User: What shape does this take?
Amino acid sequence: MAETTVASKMVTFIITRQDKPESQAYSETFKVPYRPNMNVISALMEIQRNPVTAEGKKTTPVVWESNCLEEVCGACSMVINGKPRQACSALIDQLEQPIRLEPMRTFPVVRDLVIDRERMFSALKKVKAWIPIDGTYDLGPGPRMAESKRQWAYELSKCMTCGVCLESCPNVNERNSFIGPAAISQVRLFNAHPTGEMNKEERLEALMEDGGIEGCGNSQNCVRSCPKGIPLTTSIAAMNRDTTKQLFKKWLTV
Amino acid sequence: MKGNSYFSRKLHSLVGIIPLGGFFIVHALTNFQAFERGPEGFQNGVNFINNLPLLPVLEFVLIYIPLLFHGIYGLYVAYQSNSNLGRFKYGRNWAFTAQRVTGVITFVFVFWHVYQTRFQVYMGNISHEELGSTMNHIASSPLVFTLYVIGVLAASFHFANGLWAFLISWGITVGERAQRVSSKICMAIFLLVSALFILSLVAFRGDEFKEVADAVTAVRSLL
Assistant: This one.
């Protein structure tokens, strides 16, 4: 039969869908014609063009978020075959079929594969992940950063707030207020900066509040999952050291 | 410093090693005297502990209070965690879940074990000299022996893996290599402490502990 030859060149997707933030999730199967070098995003675009399930039922197009398509923005993060990662860099040729797509449920689901990562941005605000340089007059150039330090700090700056580390963390859940690995690593980044260092106590204090750094249970899934290869567990341990010092400094000197 | 979860969790990590971890090692070594030197060696170990100054204070400040805090707060920490082993089958993630499971097992086991031994001494049902024979009685039942082996394995893992996590939580082992090396050392500690406890349990099954038990009963009946 003609169908069988066509079917062999089809890619099967099982997608977890959800119509509204508060509605029940359900799954739908789609078959997408295979093209060389396709990735999960191009397959989702195919479903968008022709939103018909494998059973031939007409359905609504699957909704997802994406932006840069080169794994630097973090918008298309989703759970692909059980692992959180970016859909743009998930090549169909390298995935086992059927390909299962789910939203990262650690975050509130907006619709289908779209999630709300607001808690990550709130976390960056909480730890003051920026360098305050605004003033009423020109402050002039800041102190220079040693090249040896810049090299490792640059690795930390690759964080794109994608949320994969939070999704993989067993301590980021509805019973736990843990801030998550990403923001802790950002404290290390901004505290390493020669100008940022001037406000390092503020950032450490933010990690020493409820839901701060102590929420880490050392499962170390984050460092295994980070798409940018950021040494998150080293960052957490380094901030453990700095918050410990800050704790004793407060107890013994003030 | 106001009492927040940072402080509680840090204290939880600390008391798990100092004093509880320290006591755990002393306990393992004392028990091991039963294997190394027989009933007399074990009795010397028990006597050494009982001759420590301010013993009731030491017991409360260094054992009971930290144990209750670590145990009860630990149950809360376990409650706050999910296990995602189905999706992330990494060694460290196994250890993360195992740390919580062994913590709960140890919590139950410690209560039961203290009830069978120290609490009976408090109640006056047995004396310090009869702890060896009490252990002989406990270890002789195949079911109780198995439960004790599970209990000591859980406690030893919880201690050794907790030591690894303590070194990270207090910012001692920061780099990846340091954490990898310390995890090997901690697993060696797990095997060593488990061996000490299990060998002691095997030793307690020996007839020499039963004979001591018989002798004590005989002396009792004479008095």
Q: What stands out?
A: Chain A has a mean pLDDT of 95.
